Amino acid sequence: MMGLTGCHIFSGMDFMGGGFLFYGIITLLIFIAIVYLFNDHQNSHRQNSALDILDREYAQGKISDADYAKRKENLKK
């Protein structure tokens, strides 16, 4: 029959032995990664949306060729 120490996967990484800090850091890193990916996705969508608006205005004849090219170059920066 196995003792209690033989059943631990991380052997010593329980909450009293520093495991709380370890799991806290892992949780924090996962949270930061999710926030970063979510913000990156929003920024790219916002930029595509601005390009879509610019294309629509150009197609409707609201802006000139030179103005369209200048604005498009500024948005791609």
From TrEMBL:
Q: Give the highest taxon in the source lineage.
A: Bacteria
- Transmembrane portions of the chain: 20-38
Give the keywords, sorted. Answer: Membrane, Transmembrane, Transmembrane helix
Q: What is this protein called?
A: SHOCT domain-containing protein
Species this chain originates from = Companilactobacillus bobalius
